[in-house]
Write a structure and sequence with these properties.
Elements (H helix, E strand, L loop, with lengths): L2 H20 L2 H17 L10 H19 L19 H10 L4 H12 L4 H8 L3 H23 L1
């Protein structure tokens, strides 16, 4: 794939992932640029990659970590600033609220599986953890969400 095709195909998913993780659209845009700069610089190795999306999201994750390390710590970051709530469909609001019930890694796994359509293998690559860990964390996250749903309807 050419760089333009990679950008066209995956920039939206990468940006969504970054906004989801960072809760800051400006920082997400900066990290997106850094990510695709790295993709452009390493575009020659894309042919060897089994999942370009997982490869690009792993780069984005690493660039995001780098960007967060460079920033001074921020106090009192609002938890509910996932997206502009006024424009979200009800199902997105529900999904966002449900994800707040999970810890950071579980939230990332569930977002990757259900919002981005990634496989457990791709998530394992992105998060740099074993595939079995992704599967077990997804299983327990679904159980936790199911319990949360049952308590909400009781």
């Amino acid at each position: 794939m050419t760089f333009g095709e990679l950008y066209e195909e995956y920039a939206g998913a990468v940006y969504s992932y970054l906004v989801f993780k960072l809760r800051d659209s400006q920082l997400a845009e900066d990290v997106l640029q850094d990510t695709f700069l790295a993709v452009h610089q390493n575009n020659h190795s894309v042919q060897e990659i089994s999942s370009p999306k997982a490869w690009i999201l792993a780069i984005a994750r690493n660039k995001m970590v780098d960007a967060l390390r460079k920033r001074p710590p921020v106090e009192n970051v609002p938890v509910d600033t996932l997206r502009d709530v006024g424009c979200e469909p009800a199902s997105d609001l529900f999904f966002s609220e449900a994800l707040t019930q999970l810890d950071e890694v579980d939230r990332t796994i569930m977002y990757g599986l259900y919002a981005e359509g990634l496989t457990c293998q791709e998530l394992a690559q992105i998060l740099d953890i074993p595939e079995g860990t992704v599967k077990s964390k997804a299983h327990y996250a679904r159980k936790k969400l199911q319990k949360w749903l049952q308590e909400g309807t009781a």
